[in-house]
Amino acid sequence: MGTTSFLTRARGLLRIRNQLVRECLAELLSTFVLIIITLGTAAQKITFFETKGNIITSYVGSAIAVMVGIYVAGGISGAHMNPAFSLAMCLTEQFPWWKFPIFVVVQTLASFISAGAVYILYYDAIWHYSNGTLTVSGPRETASIFATYPADNVSVANGFLDQVIGTGVLLVGVMGLMDTRNKPVPKGLEPLAVALLVLSIECSMGANCGCPLNPARDIGPRLFTYVAGWGPEVFRWVEGRG
């Protein structure tokens, strides 16, 4: 009885009653889960010379990460996990504009933290693979573990168009899946449907720029690589990286 009473009191003290704080923490956790899995698949693929991962495991892992993130926080914050999606929700009047900058900051912060967690997790592997030099280009570059960079001969204009189209397809697909007036997804399986949508986009539009589809997913980890030792080159458009 004493232990039960103590746990009850502890839960009461730790309970967060402010709705905005609850939503922000949920968004932080869901985005963290999404990005740590996504970056982890890239780290495993690159640092182990594709012996313990490949492009397929990266695509599948990141798609499943989207599903897990939605299950983690979908009922609390909506599990946006993406500033582009938050913006789309504001434009369709399904999300208040005043919350938009707050969610963007939370999503970017979560992505930054996730990048740090992956760096710690794969610290030895990253330094072994890179021969002790953190670079953005070259045969032993490791920056692409964290942020996306263009393939050889992809121009700035083509890269921009690539991301506009890819993100647009993602948003149209998600909004369609969410529309209750449309053909409904079986209740509880919406996250799986979104994950399959993401996987299809990665398989069809991932070659040019790595298919981030998410400003926070790219900006947060890119900021991390800047402060962690890769330097200002992470903000430059690098062609012919291999």
Automatic annotation (TrEMBL):
Recorded GO CC terms: basolateral plasma membrane
Pfam families given in the database record: MIP
Main localization, broad class: membrane
Membrane topology, as annotated: Multi-pass membrane protein
Compartments it resides in: Cell membrane
Keywords annotated in UniProt: Cell membrane, Glycoprotein, Membrane, Repeat, Transmembrane, Transmembrane helix, Transport
Keyword Repeat recorded: yes
Reaction(s) the record says it catalyses: H2O(in) = H2O(out); urea(in) = urea(out); glycerol(in) = glycerol(out)
InterPro entries named among the record's database cross-references: Aquaporin-like, Aquaporin_3, MIP, MIP/Aquaporin, MIP_CS
TM regions (residue ranges): 20-43, 55-79, 100-122, 160-178
Alphabetized SUPFAM superfamilies for the sequence: Aquaporin-like
Molecular function (Gene Ontology), one example: urea transmembrane transporter activity
Record note on quaternary structure: Homotetramer; each monomer provides an independent glycerol/water pore. Could also exist in other oligomeric states.
UniProt family annotation: Belongs to the MIP/aquaporin (TC 1.A.8) family.
Purpose: Aquaglyceroporins form homotetrameric transmembrane channels, with each monomer independently mediating glycerol and water transport across the plasma membrane along their osmotic gradient. Could also be permeable to urea. Also participates in cell permeability to H2O2 and H2O2-mediated signaling. In skin, transports glycerol to the epidermis and stratum corneum, where it maintains hydration, elasticity, and supports lipid biosynthesis for barrier repair. In kidney, contributes to the reabsorption of water, helping the body maintain proper fluid balance.
Protein's name in the database: Aquaporin-3
